Amino acid sequence: MFTSTGSRGLYKAPLSKGLLLVPGVLACLLTLGFPQYQELFSYNLQAVRHDFQLWRLVCGRLVCLDLRDTFCSSLLIYNFRVFERRYGSRKFASFLLGTWLLSALMEVLLAEVLHRLFQLRADALPSGPLAAVFALFVPFFHSIPRVQVTQILGQLSITNKSLVYIVGLQLLTSSPFMWIVALGGLGAGELYLGDVLGVQRFLRVPGFVARACSRTLEPLLSGSEPNREAALGMGATLDIQRQQRMDLLDQQILLSQFAHMRRGRQQQVGLINWDRFFPNLRHRGQNLGRPQQPTPPPPPPPQPTPAASTPVSEEQVARLMEMGFSRLDALEALRASNNDINMATNFLLQH
Predict the structure, then answer these.
(1) Is 36 in contact with 29 (CB distance < 8 Å)?
(2) DSSP character string of 153-203
(3) Helix spans in 36-88 (H)
(4) Dihedral through CA 65, CA 56, CA 138, CA 248, nearest 10?
(5) In the chain, where are the structural domains located?
(6) By the 8 A CB rule, do 10 and 223 touch?
(7) Which pLDDT score is estimated for 98?
(8) pLDDT at position 303, please?
(9) Which CATH fold topology does 14-226 show?
(10) What are all long-range contacts of 52-58, with beta carbons under 8 Å and residues at least 24 apart?
(11) Label partner for 204 (CA 20 to 30 A): which of 125, 132, 230, 283?
(12) How many CA atoms lie within 13 A of 15 on its CB side?
C-alpha cells in the first residue's frame, strides 16, 4: 500500500531522503549514545512562556526524542515523497517550511487556550518535526485518489490509503499531548494549501537558498533511477514476486497503449497527404499516351482503438488536472487505462 502512490525508492526525492536520514540518525544518537544532550532538543513550552527560551521553538521541533515517533514519522515521510516528485523539491520544501512555522504559532495558542479554559497545562509537547508530517495529510486527503483494495467482513472497506491513516493514528496516540501537535499541523496544512491571507508568497524557500542546496546537497542525496528488471526479485515470497510481475506487466501494457494512441493522433493530425494536391510528376509524362485508369478510392480512415473510443469521465479528468497534469495527458492516460484513475495516476507520475 505504501507504493500505491508512486514508484518504489527515493528517485527524484532528495529532500525526502534527507528528512529520513538526518533526523533519524540524530534521534538514534541522542537516544542511545548521548542522552545527556536530549534536554537541548526537548519541546518545553513552559520554558518558552516563562523563561522566554524562544530557541526551543526551533530546536524542540527538529528531532524526535522517541524512537517510536521517529519510526512512524519516517514511514509517513517515505509515503509522502510522492508530493516532492509532483511539486518539485523547492515547492515541497516551501510547504514543509510554511507549515512548520505556522504550526508553531498554532501549538502555542492551543496550549494557552487549553490552560485558560480548562486549567490543563501542556508544559511539554512531543519533540520533532511532527507537525509538518501531520500537515502532509492535508494534500494526501485532497489529491490522492481513494481506490478500494478489499473488504473485511463484507462491510469494512480497505483502500490504498488505509495503512497510511493507521500509521498516522498510531503516531497520534503515542503521547498524551500529541493531539495538540496534530491539530496544529492539520490547521497549518489547510491554511498553507488554501493560501489563506497569501501565506504561500511569504512562507517559501528563497530562490538563492534553493539554488545553493541544489548545487551542494542534491548531488549527495539524489537517488538513482530504479531498475525495473532488477526489482522483480525483491519480493520475499512468491506471492509478492508474482504481484510485482503483474504490476510491471500492467505498466508495460499501459505504456504501450499510451504510445500507440499518441502515434495514432500524430498520424491523423500532423500528416498531410500531399499526393492529393500534387500528383507524381515523374509518372505524369508516362501516362499521357495511355488511357487513364480509374482512380482507386482512398483507403478508409483508421478505426480508433477500443481504448481511444472509451468515454472518459470529466470528473476524473478534473481530478487529474488538479494534481498538476495537463488535460491532454489526463485524457490519454484515462483512455489507455480504461478509466482506472489509480492506474492513470501511477502512470502519469512515473512516466
Answers:
(1) no
(2) TTTEEEETTHHHHHHHHHHHTTSTTHHHHHHHHHHHHHHHHTTGGGHHHHS
(3) 45-50, 56-59, 67-79, 81-87
(4) -40
(5) 14-226, 228-268+305-351
(6) yes
(7) 93
(8) 47
(9) Rhomboid-like fold (1.20.1540)
(10) 57/104, 57/108
(11) 125
(12) 22
Q: What is the rounded distance in angstroms from the CA atom of residue 115 to the CA atom of residue 93? A: 33
* CA gap 210, 235 in Å, rounded: 37
- Phi, psi (5° rounding) for residue 151? -130, 145
Q: Where does residue 291 fall: left (phi above 0), alpha (psi -120 to 50 degrees), or beta otherwise?
A: beta
Beta bridge partners of 281: none
Query: What gap in Å lies between CA 74 and CA 96, rounded to an integer?
Result: 15
pLDDT value at residue 296: 54
Dihedral sign from CA coordinates of 203, 209, 211, 214: negative
Q: Rounded to whole angstroms, what are the CA distances from 165 to 1, 9, 130, 323? A: 11, 21, 15, 21
Grid cell of 281 as nine digits: 510528376
Which H or E element spans position 209? Answer: helix 207-216
Given a contact cutoff of 8 angstroms between Cβ atoms, the answer to whether 241 and 235 are in contact is yes
- Euclidean distance between CA atoms 142 and 93, whole angstroms: 19
Three cell numbers written together for 26 = 540524530
Locate the DSSP E strands across the chain. Answer: 43-44, 124-125, 148-152, 156-159
What lies within 8 Å, CB to CB, of 197 at 6+ separation is: 191
What does each of the 351 residues of the chain score in pLDDT, given as a tens digit? 444 445 567 878 899 999 999 988 999 999 888 888 989 899 988 888 888 888 888 999 999 989 999 999 999 999 999 899 888 889 999 999 999 999 999 999 999 898 888 888 888 899 999 999 999 999 999 988 887 777 777 677 888 888 999 999 999 999 889 999 999 999 999 999 998 888 888 888 998 998 998 888 888 887 666 655 444 444 455 555 555 655 665 565 566 666 666 666 655 555 444 444 444 444 444 444 454 455 555 555 444 444 445 577 887 888 787 777 788 888 888 888 777 777 788 777 766
Length of the chain in terms of residues written = 351
- Global pTM? 0.65
